[in-house]
Amino acid sequence: DGHGAGNRGAAARHSPTIDMASMLLEISAxxxxxxxxxxxxxxxxxxxxxxxxxxVGRKTFVVDRRxxxxxxxxxxxxxxxxxxxxxxxxxxxxxxxxxxxxxxVDKFQDYLRAAVAAAGPAPPPALLRFLxxxxxxxxxxVAAASRGExxxxxxxxxxxxxxxxxxxxFGVVSAPSSSDTNxxxxxxxxxxxxxxxxxxxDAKADPNFRDRRGDCPLHLACMFNRQQVVKALLExxxxxxxxxxxxxxxxxxxxxxxRMKIDKFQSTGKF
Length: 271
Hints:
It is a single chain. By secondary structure, the chain is an alpha+beta fold. The protein folds into two domains: 145 residues, PX Domain (2-Layer Sandwich); 92 residues, Serine Threonine Protein Phosphatase 5, Tetratricopeptide repeat, CATH 1.25.40.20. The chain has ten helices and three strands. It has a three-stranded antiparallel β-sheet. Helix 8 runs antiparallel to helix 9. The longest helix has 22 residues. The chain starts with a helix and ends with a helix.
């Protein structure tokens, strides 16, 4: 069909034929924390978004990766992406304290941001595997769009009949609009976007919701030292006495200055 081929060509743009192998991708990835597993391992939590060029088939999901998986991925992509360091820039120790793990979160974030930027819209397969990207899902969305079919991404106007299971290739996908708002609040905190966080709180995002690692928004805001967001969360009803899955209060992972501000708010109602 000439008309369908033309549509698919417009979607691919950079390919004269309908070649899904050359499909361009829009990817963002953030290292948002870490989890100590019952087996004694530490995994680092990645929040990823991927879509075909133009936002077609956008998916948001979470994957967990161990230190060794970062190293293995780096070994595979370094020759393809010469702008990233030749040696993996994060050191590994036999014993790692909580402070060391938090420091690694920042270092992994810097590394991953550089790798994704260096890869551009055509990431190496090793990077896609590491991020947990199932390109076939994006290909299906692009093919549907080229046929003029509506996108199957989650809608904010109506809930999906069923969300994807935890073990799916795209990890956790929020279905109801309230869950989307809460996930967006979490992303706003990690992305240092205070304006978005304020808007989402005003739009009734839950200031006490727990993510899949058991952290509340206040834990994340304290971890990343987002003072303006901490203030807004408290004013919108965030409970500073809620503990995360590790049994920590937000104040335990807050800076000294931020801890004092939270204590002041609890006693006086003023930040």
